[in-house]
């Protein structure tokens, strides 16, 4: 059966995931954010306040908490630029499993250090997503680790979908939801939960122009892959995946209205706006949704209540200082 026609994640699976991860991941708050010049009511979903500073804990916990005792004994492995790495390391520590993380050489030092601090073993490779995957597969063959994929997995999608579940539970009147998109785990899960609970709401994905593979895939109806040297240009280190996952794309095609791309300058301006207005610290990847609201209103439907997901807050302090002080001299 093709991925386009296979059964998608359902609401029961999402609700069960929410119950399963309740002792590990937080129910994060919605923060009212009255940005200047933005029509409608805007709330930010503060996934930056998760224990690891990112939504990635949801999917990793949902996957790892379902492992058998034998699988826990074998240990887990994943390939990640940082946030999923921390989610896997954190959830593995909860169940007492060894965690091995294959990371690109250009992963932010703050994310690498945080992953090591959680007790994981880090293996460095080149910048391409394909290199991370190939190394992980090699280590699985050698050691028998259980793979915890970053996005293209039903249990990961169901875990990330709990973020959408919380959005609708907190704001039943929401009519626009924006999620960052790279591999597609968060967007596919959130869109599924939101649409199953509130079909009239509109869901959009947002990604950097410099890593716009999902937008191109959405336009053409087929998954396209961008070269690593292209996607690595963006400041959004969490959104540099070269192509959207197959299972994720099936959910996105079923439930998402569109994909918006934003510029690097817009992302940086959105980071400043989030800090000034919501008093949250976003990493660049977590600011793309606010950038869409601030600078691409013409591409969005009219709304009364919008929720923009701040997917993470693991920003390098030097990058944050640079962004916040731009133009202040």
Describe this structure in words.
With 329 residues, this protein is α/β, with parallel strands linked by helices. Helices cover 46% and strands 15% of the residues. Strands 1-2-10-7-8-9 form a 6-stranded mixed β-sheet, sandwiched between helices. The termini are far apart. The model is unreliable at 1-5 (pLDDT under 50).
List keywords for this structure.
single chain; about 325 residues; alpha/beta; six-stranded mixed β-sheet; 10 strands
Order of helices and strands: HEEHHEHEHEHEHEHEHHHEHHEH
> What radius of gyration results from the CA coordinates?
18 Å
Put simply, the count of helices is 14
* Tally of DSSP β-strands: 10
What about the largest sheet? 6 strands, mixed
Structural class: alpha/beta
Beta fraction: 5-15%
Unreliable residue runs: 1-5
Per the principal axes of the C-alpha atoms, what is the gross shape?
globular
Enumerate the strands of the largest sheet in spatial order, edge to edge or round the barrel: 1-2-10-7-8-9
Mean pLDDT: 94
State the separation between the terminal residues, measured CA to CA. 59 Å
Helix content: 40-55%
Entry summary:
This protein has 329 residues and is an alpha/beta fold.
Topology:
Blueprint (H helix, E strand, L loop, with lengths): L10 H11 L8 E3 L8 E6 L9 H9 L4 H6 L1 E4 L3 H13 L3 E6 L4 H9 L3 E5 L3 H15 L2 E2 L6 H17 L5 E5 L4 H13 L4 E7 L4 H8 L7 H4 L14 H10 L2 E5 L1 H15 L5 H12 L9 E6 L6 H9 L4
Parallel strand pairs: 2-10, 3-4, 3-6, 4-5, 7-8, 7-10, 8-9
Antiparallel strand pairs: 1-2
Helix pairs in contact: 1-7, 2-4, 2-7, 4-5, 7-8, 8-11, 12-13
